[in-house]
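Fold this sequence, please.
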Amino acid sequence: EVQLQASGGGLVQPGGSLRLSCVASEFTLRFYGVNWFRQVPGKEAEWLSLTSRDGLTSYADSVKGRFTVSRDNAKNTIYLEMNNLRPEHTAVYYCKANGYRGQGTKVTVSS
C-alpha cells in the first residue's frame, strides 16, 4: 500500500524547534518533487516548500530562513526542520509527493 506519512509534531514553546519527517512507502521519494504544506482548520492550506528531484529546495517567503528541508535517501525520508517557532505556526503539517498527500502531523506552539 502506497503511503506517505508525516510525523514529529507536538507541543513546543515559542522560540522552540521541531523536526518533522515525511516517509514514503512503496515508492522512492527522491524520484519526485516533495512539497510541505500546513493547514489551520477552517483556512486554506499554505504551501511551505518544494524539494525537487535533484534535491534543490525553494521556500515560501513566510518560512525562508526559519525552516530547512533535508532528505535522507537511504531512509526514503524528507525532513522539515523548523526553528524559532511562533504561536501562529500552529497547524497540521503534511507532505505531498507523487500525487499523494501524507497524513499530517499536528504542531502546537504555545507556552
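The chain has a mean pLDDT of 95. The two ends are 39 Å apart (CA to CA).
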